[in-house]
Design goal:
Order of helices and strands of chain B: EEEEEEEEEE
Number of strands of chain B: 10
Structural class of chain B: mainly beta
Largest sheet of chain B: 7 strands, mixed
Radius of gyration of chain B: 13 Å
Order of helices and strands of chain A: EEEEEEEEEEE
Strand content of chain A: over 45%
Structural class of chain A: mainly beta
Shape of chain B: globular
Oligomer: heterodimer
Chain lengths: ~120, ~110
Amino acid sequence: EVQLLESGGGLVQPGGSLRLSCAASGFTFSAYAMSWVRQAPGKGLAWVSTLTGSGGTTYYADSVKGRFTISRDNSKNTLYLQMNSLGAEDTAVYFCAHNSGYDHYYAMDVWGQGTTVTVSS
Amino acid sequence: ENVLTQSPGTLSLSPGERATLSCRASQSVSGSYLAWYQQKPGQAPRLLIYGASSRATGIPDRFSGSGSGTDFTLTISRLEPEDFAVYYCQQYVSSPLTFGGGTKVEIK
Protein backbone atom coordinates (compact mmCIF):
# COMPACT_ATOMS: atom_id res chain seq x y z
CA GLU A 1 0.00 0.00 0.00
CA VAL A 2 1.34 3.40 -1.00
CA GLN A 3 1.68 5.69 2.00
CA LEU A 4 2.89 9.27 2.29
CA LEU A 5 3.61 11.09 5.53
CA GLU A 6 4.43 14.79 5.55
CA SER A 7 6.27 16.59 8.31
CA GLY A 8 8.06 19.86 8.95
CA GLY A 9 5.18 22.29 9.00
CA GLY A 10 4.81 24.93 11.67
CA LEU A 11 4.74 28.63 12.47
CA VAL A 12 7.38 30.77 10.79
CA GLN A 13 7.91 34.51 10.63
CA PRO A 14 7.59 36.42 7.35
CA GLY A 15 10.83 36.19 5.42
CA GLY A 16 11.75 32.96 7.13
CA SER A 17 12.45 29.47 5.83
CA LEU A 18 11.05 26.02 6.38
CA ARG A 19 11.76 22.57 4.94
CA LEU A 20 8.95 20.08 4.49
CA SER A 21 9.54 16.35 4.19
CA CYS A 22 7.40 13.57 2.80
CA ALA A 23 8.31 10.00 3.75
CA ALA A 24 7.08 7.49 1.20
CA SER A 25 6.55 3.74 1.45
CA GLY A 26 4.88 0.91 -0.43
CA PHE A 27 6.26 1.57 -3.91
CA THR A 28 9.51 1.95 -5.86
CA PHE A 29 10.11 5.58 -4.98
CA SER A 30 12.57 6.43 -7.75
CA ALA A 31 10.17 5.26 -10.46
CA TYR A 32 7.55 7.93 -9.86
CA ALA A 33 7.26 11.67 -10.04
CA MET A 34 6.21 13.37 -6.82
CA SER A 35 4.40 16.63 -6.27
CA TRP A 36 3.50 19.24 -3.70
CA VAL A 37 0.05 20.83 -3.68
CA ARG A 38 -1.15 23.42 -1.19
CA GLN A 39 -4.46 24.67 0.08
CA ALA A 40 -4.80 28.03 1.76
CA PRO A 41 -7.42 28.25 4.55
CA GLY A 42 -10.90 28.05 3.05
CA LYS A 43 -9.55 28.01 -0.50
CA GLY A 44 -9.10 25.50 -3.30
CA LEU A 45 -6.17 23.36 -4.32
CA ALA A 46 -3.07 24.96 -5.85
CA TRP A 47 -0.23 23.04 -7.48
CA VAL A 48 3.19 24.02 -6.15
CA SER A 49 5.82 21.79 -7.72
CA THR A 50 6.58 18.43 -9.34
CA LEU A 51 9.82 16.48 -9.55
CA THR A 52 10.46 13.59 -11.92
CA GLY A 53 11.40 10.14 -10.63
CA SER A 54 15.13 10.55 -11.15
CA GLY A 55 15.07 14.05 -9.74
CA GLY A 56 16.39 15.40 -13.01
CA THR A 57 13.53 17.71 -13.95
CA THR A 58 11.62 20.13 -11.78
CA TYR A 59 8.50 22.14 -12.39
CA TYR A 60 7.27 25.09 -10.30
CA ALA A 61 4.27 27.35 -10.04
CA ASP A 62 5.18 30.95 -10.85
CA SER A 63 4.15 31.98 -7.34
CA VAL A 64 6.97 29.95 -5.76
CA LYS A 65 9.63 29.93 -8.48
CA GLY A 66 12.95 31.20 -7.12
CA ARG A 67 11.82 30.80 -3.52
CA PHE A 68 10.95 27.10 -3.21
CA THR A 69 13.11 24.12 -4.14
CA ILE A 70 11.78 20.60 -4.56
CA SER A 71 14.18 17.70 -4.16
CA ARG A 72 14.24 14.02 -3.32
CA ASP A 73 16.53 11.46 -1.75
CA ASN A 74 15.73 8.19 -3.46
CA SER A 75 17.94 6.30 -1.01
CA LYS A 76 15.71 7.49 1.84
CA ASN A 77 12.40 7.40 -0.06
CA THR A 78 11.84 10.99 0.92
CA LEU A 79 10.62 14.09 -0.91
CA TYR A 80 11.47 17.59 0.27
CA LEU A 81 10.28 21.14 -0.22
CA GLN A 82 12.66 23.88 0.87
CA MET A 83 10.71 27.10 1.28
CA ASN A 84 12.52 30.43 1.57
CA SER A 85 11.38 34.06 1.75
CA LEU A 86 8.02 32.98 3.09
CA GLY A 87 5.13 35.40 3.08
CA ALA A 88 1.59 35.37 4.44
CA GLU A 89 0.38 34.13 1.05
CA ASP A 90 2.26 30.89 1.64
CA THR A 91 0.11 30.00 4.65
CA ALA A 92 -1.57 26.73 3.72
CA VAL A 93 -1.82 23.01 4.23
CA TYR A 94 0.85 21.41 2.07
CA PHE A 95 0.07 18.01 0.60
CA CYS A 96 2.60 15.59 -0.81
CA ALA A 97 1.26 13.54 -3.73
CA HIS A 98 2.40 10.49 -5.71
CA ASN A 99 2.11 10.86 -9.47
CA SER A 100 1.05 7.62 -11.14
CA GLY A 101 3.97 7.80 -13.56
CA TYR A 102 7.44 9.14 -14.13
CA ASP A 103 6.66 12.77 -14.98
CA HIS A 104 3.91 15.35 -14.51
CA TYR A 105 1.91 13.71 -17.30
CA TYR A 106 0.30 11.47 -14.72
CA ALA A 107 -2.46 12.20 -12.26
CA MET A 108 -1.84 12.34 -8.52
CA ASP A 109 -3.26 9.07 -7.31
CA VAL A 110 -2.16 8.99 -3.67
CA TRP A 111 -1.99 11.92 -1.26
CA GLY A 112 -0.57 12.44 2.20
CA GLN A 113 -2.67 13.96 4.96
CA GLY A 114 -0.88 17.30 4.75
CA THR A 115 1.23 19.49 6.98
CA THR A 116 0.24 23.01 8.00
CA VAL A 117 2.47 26.00 7.37
CA THR A 118 1.56 29.29 9.02
CA VAL A 119 3.50 32.43 8.16
CA SER A 120 2.90 35.10 10.76
CA SER A 121 4.74 37.45 13.07
CA GLU B 1 -1.45 29.15 -18.07
CA ASN B 2 -4.45 26.96 -18.73
CA VAL B 3 -7.24 28.31 -16.53
CA LEU B 4 -9.90 25.78 -15.50
CA THR B 5 -13.35 27.15 -14.66
CA GLN B 6 -15.73 24.88 -12.79
CA SER B 7 -19.46 25.32 -12.65
CA PRO B 8 -21.65 25.58 -10.80
CA GLY B 9 -19.87 26.75 -7.67
CA THR B 10 -22.38 24.93 -5.51
CA LEU B 11 -24.80 22.16 -6.41
CA SER B 12 -27.65 21.47 -3.99
CA LEU B 13 -29.11 18.01 -4.51
CA SER B 14 -30.77 15.18 -2.61
CA PRO B 15 -29.41 11.66 -2.16
CA GLY B 16 -30.35 9.53 -5.14
CA GLU B 17 -30.28 12.44 -7.58
CA ARG B 18 -27.89 12.82 -10.51
CA ALA B 19 -25.06 15.35 -10.28
CA THR B 20 -23.45 16.93 -13.33
CA LEU B 21 -20.31 19.01 -12.80
CA SER B 22 -18.60 21.03 -15.50
CA CYS B 23 -14.96 21.96 -16.05
CA ARG B 24 -14.03 24.31 -18.90
CA ALA B 25 -10.43 24.98 -19.89
CA SER B 26 -9.15 28.20 -21.40
CA GLN B 27 -6.91 26.15 -23.72
CA SER B 28 -7.37 22.69 -25.13
CA VAL B 29 -6.20 19.91 -22.81
CA SER B 30 -4.35 17.72 -25.29
CA GLY B 31 -4.48 13.98 -24.80
CA SER B 32 -7.32 14.44 -22.28
CA TYR B 33 -4.83 14.78 -19.44
CA LEU B 34 -7.60 15.83 -17.10
CA ALA B 35 -8.36 14.47 -13.63
CA TRP B 36 -11.16 14.85 -11.11
CA TYR B 37 -10.61 14.78 -7.34
CA GLN B 38 -12.98 14.61 -4.40
CA GLN B 39 -12.20 16.33 -1.12
CA LYS B 40 -14.10 16.12 2.15
CA PRO B 41 -13.57 18.56 5.04
CA GLY B 42 -10.31 17.98 6.87
CA GLN B 43 -9.21 15.28 4.44
CA ALA B 44 -6.75 14.99 1.59
CA PRO B 45 -8.07 14.96 -1.96
CA ARG B 46 -8.86 11.60 -3.54
CA LEU B 47 -8.37 10.82 -7.21
CA LEU B 48 -11.63 9.82 -8.89
CA ILE B 49 -11.01 10.10 -12.63
CA TYR B 50 -7.89 10.39 -14.78
CA GLY B 51 -7.45 10.69 -18.52
CA ALA B 52 -10.83 12.47 -18.55
CA SER B 53 -12.82 9.22 -18.34
CA SER B 54 -10.90 6.44 -16.57
CA ARG B 55 -11.95 5.61 -13.03
CA ALA B 56 -9.18 5.34 -10.47
CA THR B 57 -8.75 2.17 -8.45
CA GLY B 58 -11.62 1.50 -6.09
CA ILE B 59 -13.88 4.26 -7.39
CA PRO B 60 -17.54 3.19 -7.70
CA ASP B 61 -19.05 3.10 -11.17
CA ARG B 62 -21.61 5.76 -10.30
CA PHE B 63 -18.77 8.20 -10.99
CA SER B 64 -18.04 8.84 -14.65
CA GLY B 65 -16.04 11.38 -16.57
CA SER B 66 -16.37 12.58 -20.14
CA GLY B 67 -15.25 15.29 -22.50
CA SER B 68 -12.27 16.40 -24.52
CA GLY B 69 -10.60 19.55 -25.73
CA THR B 70 -11.84 22.33 -23.47
CA ASP B 71 -15.06 20.88 -22.04
CA PHE B 72 -15.18 18.14 -19.45
CA THR B 73 -17.90 16.70 -17.23
CA LEU B 74 -18.01 14.65 -14.05
CA THR B 75 -21.28 12.82 -13.52
CA ILE B 76 -22.42 11.10 -10.35
CA SER B 77 -25.36 8.95 -11.44
CA ARG B 78 -27.06 8.59 -8.05
CA LEU B 79 -25.74 10.53 -5.11
CA GLU B 80 -24.90 8.55 -2.00
CA PRO B 81 -24.59 10.30 1.41
CA GLU B 82 -20.80 9.98 1.27
CA ASP B 83 -20.61 11.81 -2.08
CA PHE B 84 -21.39 15.22 -0.63
CA ALA B 85 -18.04 16.94 -0.89
CA VAL B 86 -16.02 19.38 -3.00
CA TYR B 87 -14.85 18.27 -6.44
CA TYR B 88 -11.88 19.65 -8.34
CA CYS B 89 -10.75 19.18 -11.90
CA GLN B 90 -7.06 19.40 -12.83
CA GLN B 91 -5.09 19.44 -16.05
CA TYR B 92 -1.70 17.79 -15.91
CA VAL B 93 -0.50 17.98 -19.49
CA SER B 94 1.29 21.32 -19.32
CA SER B 95 3.18 23.22 -16.67
CA PRO B 96 2.00 25.07 -14.71
CA LEU B 97 -0.40 22.35 -13.72
CA THR B 98 -3.72 23.91 -12.78
CA PHE B 99 -6.80 23.09 -10.73
CA GLY B 100 -10.28 24.43 -11.14
CA GLY B 101 -11.84 26.41 -8.32
CA GLY B 102 -14.01 23.51 -7.20
CA THR B 103 -17.69 22.61 -7.09
CA LYS B 104 -19.30 21.94 -3.75
CA VAL B 105 -22.01 19.29 -3.83
CA GLU B 106 -24.22 19.86 -0.81
CA ILE B 107 -27.31 18.20 0.58
CA LYS B 108 -30.51 19.96 -0.38
